[in-house]
Write a structure and sequence with these properties.
The structure holds three protein chains of three kinds.
Chain A lengths: L7 H17 L1 H22 L1
Chain B lengths: L8 H21 L5 H9 L5 H24 L6 H7 L2 H33 L3 H4 L4 H15 L4 H21 L5 H33 L3 H12 L3 H7 L7 H29 L3 H11 L3 H11 L5 H32 L10 H7 L3 H14 L8 E4 L2 E4 L10 H13 L5 H13 L5 H9 L7 H14 L4 H22 L4 H4 L4 H25 L5
Helix pairs in contact in B: 1-3, 1-5, 3-5, 5-7, 5-8, 5-22, 7-14, 7-22, 8-17, 8-22, 9-10, 9-15, 9-24, 10-11, 10-12, 10-15, 10-24, 12-14, 12-24, 13-14, 13-15, 13-24, 14-15, 14-22, 18-19, 19-20, 20-21
Chain C lengths: L1 E5 L4 H16 L3 E8 L9 H18 L1 H9 L4 E7 L2 H11 L4 E5 L14 H8 L3 E5 L1
Parallel strand pairs in C: 1-2, 1-4, 2-3, 4-5
Helix pairs in contact in C: 4-5
The chains are: A mainly alpha, B mainly alpha, C alpha/beta.
Chain lengths: 48, 531, 138
């Protein structure tokens, strides 16, 4: 299984697949970002 | 598997919270204290009763609302349902656990710790950092490993990750530019050295011990960068097999949990300060959430340790793409000697794959540094907020002012600026500007009198004031972390930990211990001063 | 007759699989091969990463049973491969119930050391709580 020769195109694909990991969290991150900023705005509006 | 069942879980949990909040509120308003107020008085939480019922009533109302909805119309599979309706019941249970640990268990252990001090010789609650964060994690671990997380709670437990991210983003508002610069440069140096050092060490160890290359690759990412998430990120590049993942993740979780519980106690015994401990935890502890946990177990009353630790953690997360690329090249070389690793522009990758929650953290910092959270009359100077409005409680006592006058008269204050600032202090009876507060603090260099040094410090403290906006943000940020960390506890299962085995366990224990010990030495010896 | 065999990648599990295939063939039944993967999705991993991880974990069992499936298809014995993640005993019992399994076949103990997909006394748990016949292969 590990012996199959990785051609350069396959390696490219592998790298891309690896890096796609960092994109996959985006939805959750965006949700967190929006909620955190909404709360911050709420604090400014009510307390300042 | 009956998805269409109308679940009463959320409404029950919501009503419990609501009932608790309302009873507490009514008892707080009543003339004679009820049983909850009696408990609060005994535990010393009477001051925090209003936060308690506000949180309980609000959370209870929201969860009950969604609970009613869930009861009337079964939750479907839409994005909205997944995001809000499905997790509510579990979210409610975690909030209840947070209230119980923060307002009941922590004070209780504090009292017990004090009571046992004469016989034990030390306060065990303080020594082991038995605050609500640690107790919450422990409660979570006990819960998941005994009764287990029922299906209706699972979606809620999963939101712990989201809560942690919201906490980290909000934390961004708590830094000053000087702090960020200082901690940032420190963390980049330390993280770079330790991440690269660990990765190379594990690759070497794997070669010596003849571990399969995929396993070595996964382990080096996990032990070097940020634990389980890094191991998974590296998995496809090194063609990891299922068994490699099982070994590595079990081991990473085990090493992480051991670190999480031992770091705070060791840090306290060694007398590390916030900066030293934050840096140590941020370098030595593997998993991201566990870094925050250790920092808050070390100190849950102020956020200084957490601030340092998170900077280190974020720096480490930013190193992940680089390490994944390094591993890709390393693995490709092992597979095929002739083919070099594909040329990847690391700068480009970093820009494209920048994690959004880190971006959120930076944005929040930028947002706060424009001064939007600083109300009129407050000034952010260094790491403290100041309010110079003339008030009686900010005044230095007359006999202390006389002592200051005596110091000036003695001619020991050789700096004319400092002397001028002190004269102004005597005239106004309080400090009136940030420039003056710096000079007054400097004045302690000109005297050996300990008491007088204290007076200068006090004069500075008296004009410090945290605005309501910041207090509020700190409060909800701590709730996010408390929530997220109870959820963290609920995901530390014996099932996963016992996956650890074989050579992965040996490499993990050796590397984890070495890294923790080395970073401790570096933090202890090389990091001086505080933030 | 519906036969379910629990397979953890160990040699003993292969033995159990052979027995199960023979029983299914003799009884003209159908065979379900179940592999339970440990649930490794802790909090550090998001949903997408979790799916990726399960993908990695599941790719081996999928490949492993392909040959057998073809062989059984030649004898016109239907065989299905189930890969689930969770606690082993619990999942085996749940799947058997869901599929109205008549007989569960499994090894007496999981493989410790090299491949620990089955842990603890799974067979004991299954024997204790199963509502159908259980064959424990030694």
């Amino acid at each position: 299984m590990a012996q199959d020769k990785a051609s350069s195109s396959e390696q490219k694909k592998m790298e891309e697949r690896a890096l796609s990991v960092f994109a996959s969290e985006r939805r959750e991150d965006l949700t967190a970002l929006i909620i955190a900023f909404a709360l911050a705005l709420l604090v400014i509006i009510t307390l300042k | 598997m009956n998805e269409a069942k109308r679940s009463p879980a959320a409404i029950i949990v919501g009503l419990i919270l609501l009932a608790y909040g309302l009873v507490l509120k009514s008892q707080d308003a009543a003339v004679s204290p009820g049983f909850l107020m009696n408990a609060a008085n005994y535990l010393g939480t009477a001051k925090e009763v209003s936060t308690q019922y506000n949180v309980s009533i609000w959370a209870g109302a929201i969860i009950s609302f969604f609970g009613l909805w869930n009861l009337a119309i079964p939750a479907m599979k839409s994005k909205f349902d997944n995001l809000l309706r499905a997790p509510m019941a579990g979210v409610g249970v975690i909030i209840i656990l947070a209230v119980v640990t923060r307002y009941y268990l922590e004070p209780l252990f504090k009292i017990w710790g004090k009571k046992a001090e004469p016989s034990l010789g030390f306060d065990f609650a303080a020594m082991f950092g038995l605050n609500y964060i640690l107790l919450g994690i422990l409660l979570g671990i006990v819960w998941v490993n005994t009764i287990g997380v029922p299906r209706w709670m699972q979606a809620g437990v999963k939101t712990a990750r989201l809560a942690m991210k919201m906490g980290v983003i909000s934390l961004g508002a708590m830094y000053s530019l000087t702090e960020l610069k200082y901690m940032g440069s420190l963390s980049i140096t330390m993280v770079a050295v330790f991440v690269l050092g660990t990765v190379l060490f594990v690759l070497w160890l794997g070669k010596v011990m003849r571990t399969p290359r995929p396993l070595t690759g996964v382990l080096s990412a996990g032990l070097g960068v940020c634990g389980v998430s890094a191991a998974v990120a590296a998995a496809p590049v090194v063609k990891a097999r299922g068994i490699d993942m099982a070994y590595s993740i079990g081991m990473l979780l085990l090493v992480g949990v051991v670190g999480l519980f031992t770091f705070p106690t060791i840090g306290k015994m060694a007398g590390l300060n916030e900066l030293q401990f934050g840096a140590w935890a941020g370098t030595g502890i593997l998993n991201s959430a566990q870094v925050a946990a250790a920092a808050l177990i070390f100190d849950s009353k102020s956020i200084e340790t957490l601030k340092v630790a998170e900077i280190f953690n974020i720096t480490r997360i930013l190193f992940l793409p680089i390490i994944v690329i390094v591993l890709a090249i390393w693995f490709a070389k092992g597979e095929e000697e002739t083919e070099g690793g594909g040329k990847i522009n690391i700068g480009q990758v970093l820009v494209e794959k920048f994690p959004i929650f880190v971006l959120g953290f930076i944005l929040m910092f930028a947002f706060s540094s424009t001064g939007v959270f600083t109300p009129k009359g407050y000034e952010l100077h260094g790491k403290h907020f100041y309010n110079f409005k003339a008030e009686e409680k900010k005044e230095v006592r007359t006999r202390d002012l006389k002592k200051i006058q005596a110091l000036i008269d003695s001619g020991q204050v050789t700096s004319p600026e400092v002397a001028a600032a002190l004269v102004k202090l005597i005239n106004d009876r309080q400090i009136t500007s940030t420039a003056q507060t710096d000079l007054v603090l400097k004045a302690s260099d000109f005297t050996e009198d300990k008491q007088l040094k204290g007076v200068f410090k006090d004069a500075d403290k008296k004009v410090q004031a945290t605005p309501e906006t910041i207090k509020m943000m700190r409060e909800y940020m701590m709730w996010f972390f408390a929530f997220g960390l109870i959820g963290l506890g609920m995901q530390i299962t014996w099932e996963t930990i016992r996956q650890a085995g074989g050579k992965a366990a040996i490499i993990g224990v050796i590397t984890g211990f070495t890294k923790a010990a080395l970073s401790f030495v570096v933090c202890y010896l090389l990091i001086r001063g505080s933030i | 007759m519906k036969v379910l065999v629990a397979h953890d990648g160990s040699e003993l599990a292969d033995k159990a699989l052979n027995r199960a295939a023979k029983i299914a063939a003799a009884e003209k039944g159908r065979l379900t091969v179940l592999t339970v993967l440990p649930d490794l999705c802790t909090m550090e991993i998001g949903d997408d990463d979790c799916r990726k991880l399960i993908g990695i974990m599941a790719s081996e069992p999928e490949k492993r049973f392909e040959d057998l499936k073809e062989e059984l298809a030649g004898k016109s014995i239907p065989m299905e491969i189930e890969i689930k993640s969770g606690k082993a005993a619990e999942t085996i019992l749940a799947v058997s119930k869901e599929k109205n399994i008549d007989m569960i076949v499994l090894g007496s103990h999981g493989r410790h050391g090299a491949k620990k997909f089955f842990l603890g006394s799974v067979s004991v748990e299954v024997v204790k709580h199963a509502s159908c016949e259980v064959l424990v292969v030694k």
